[in-house]
Amino acid sequence: MTSTIEPTLLPETSAHTRRAPDTRTEPDLLPPSDDGVPIADPAPLGLAAFAGTTFVLSLFNAGLVGNPELVAVVLPLALIYGGLVQLLAGMWEFRNDNTFGAVAFTSYGAFWISYFFYARFVAGTLPPADAHTAVGIFLLMWTIFTAYMTLAALKTNGVLIAVFSTVLVAFSLLTIGEFVESTFLLHAGGYFGLAAAALAWYGSAAGVVNPTWRRTVLPVFPVKHG
After folding, report:
1. pLDDT per residue over 150-172, tens digit each?
2. Contact in structure between 207 and 89 (CB atoms under 8 Å)
3. Which of 36, 38, 55, 67 is the most buried (most CB within 10 A)?
4. Cβ within 8 Å of residue 119, ≥6 positions away
5. Looking at residue 35, what is its pLDDT?
6. Angle 99-117/128-153 helices, nearest 10 degrees?
7. How far is Cα 154 from Cα 107, in angstroms, rounded to an integer?
């Protein structure tokens, strides 16, 4: 929506007074744009995209799906839902002046997109031992990122604190599990991934249900600032 306020005119002058030259450039004559137009909260969408993709991959990491060939179902979700949709949510969070949400959704969107390209084009070209090391390095980077995002989350609300803390544990277990090639740690990381997905889905549901019902149906336990 744009403002209908007309540009300010110069004061009128008499016939014996020369009018000052109009030095305004063409963009100055256009109605000002209304940058204050609100947009919908993108956080429930970003959380849903993170939760859904994490849930499906974690089923395989936890060993709950026996056929490893079915892991290919994760790739379309990683590229479109976990990747592209979270990336869009992150951009909208920038529009909402929410640095935390913007960094979180954009980064985890990039995580899923990079996971897609690694699993689709790189993983099959590496020897098994090298593949474990490569995935461990990849996950280590995301563990470090998640660690300081968890620190930032401590000033948000209880649900986000739980989400980021659980994701941090999941990344840590998966990272160590890849480096030492431990099935037990990889399965444990998968279970923490499932817990993180459930918590993220709860946060997404709260972001949709509470505004729709116009009251707190699903509390998120905001942190009180002193």
Report:
1. 999 999 999 999 999 999 999 99
2. no
3. 55
4. 74, 75, 78
5. 61
6. 170
7. 19
57, 132, 188, 56 alpha-carbon torsion, rounded to 10°? 0
Phi, psi of 58 (to 5 degrees): -70, -25
| 162 neighbors 9 (Cβ within 8 angstroms) | no
| pLDDT greater at residue 220 or residue 17 | 220
**CA-to-CA distance for 101 and 43, rounded, in angstroms?**
7
Burial class (CB in 10 A: 0-12, 13-18, 19+), 212: exposed
Strand (E) or helix (H) holding 204: helix 183-213
Counting every residue, how long is the chain?
226
Give the integer Cα–Cα distance in Å for 185 and 157: 29
Burial 18-51 (b: 16+ CB within 10 A, else e): eeeeeeeeeeeeeeeeeeeeeeebbbbbbbbbbb
How many helices and strands (H and E) does the chain possess? Answer: 8, 0
CA dihedral 89, 91, 97, 100 (to 10 degrees): 60
In the numeric block, which tokens belong to residue 197?
């997905």
The identity of residue 89, as a single letter, is A
| pTM of structure | 0.84
CB 220 within 8 A of CB 159: yes
